[in-house]
User: Fold this.
Amino acid sequence: MLNLVHENYEVLPIRSNFILQMHRDLLKFTNYSYGGQFKTTPNEIDMVLANGEKVVLFKPLEPYETAPAIEAICSKYQEALDKELVDELILIPCFLLDFLCIHPFNDGNGRMSRLLTLLLLYRSGYLVGQYISIEKAIADTQEAYYDALQRADQGWHEGTNDPKPFIKYMLSIILSCYKEFEARVSIAYSSGTKSTSYDVVKVYVSERIGKFSKQEVLMGCPSLGSSSVESALKKLVEDGTLVRIGAGRKTMYARADSIMS
Assistant:
């Protein structure tokens, strides 16, 4: 499916029937029989906590409301684009938020939302997802993602929700991917070799002022996983580039050259 979006985004319009066909292909090689069909039973948006407890974040639309709702958000998105009412980078998170609140499928809503993220960005000329994994950037900041989603969907059914938290989150993801791409190009150009996680994190932290957390480094370096970032931060502390402040989940870091002796 990723290749389909990478190679054919110009001829994949944002329409209900194309979304259904993408979902069909997404589930083609699974045991599910409902690929390419809107949900037939009610569902919910939930989050599994570290202790295994499931927390319900939102109750989406009912099955009978789903098809017209998807038609409506596709139509309104295209209308807003045509009239140039709002910048695409604001429109795209709003469309994704509506899609997630509708939660149109029995399974695969998260994966479809990430495919649609790529498709919408590509069609608007933002191609960073061809080089840096936006899906990984979202997965590595899952807590921030769910927090933004939960704050942005309050009052959605009544039309009184404020989408700004989700817009800001998505913009931060897109920006971090472009920064990561720029950093990787700079490192490769200057060193002529494939950059390591240590190199990528070192470039990122060299631009930081003040204290920052591991989570912020993950957002700033979306091509790296949690363990790679943790290892790089440890090495940067050991070689004197960074100073560790605090311990456990409250651990923060700062550049050593910013600490008063």
About this structure: Residues 2-179 form a domain with the Fic-like fold fold (CATH 1.10.3290.10).
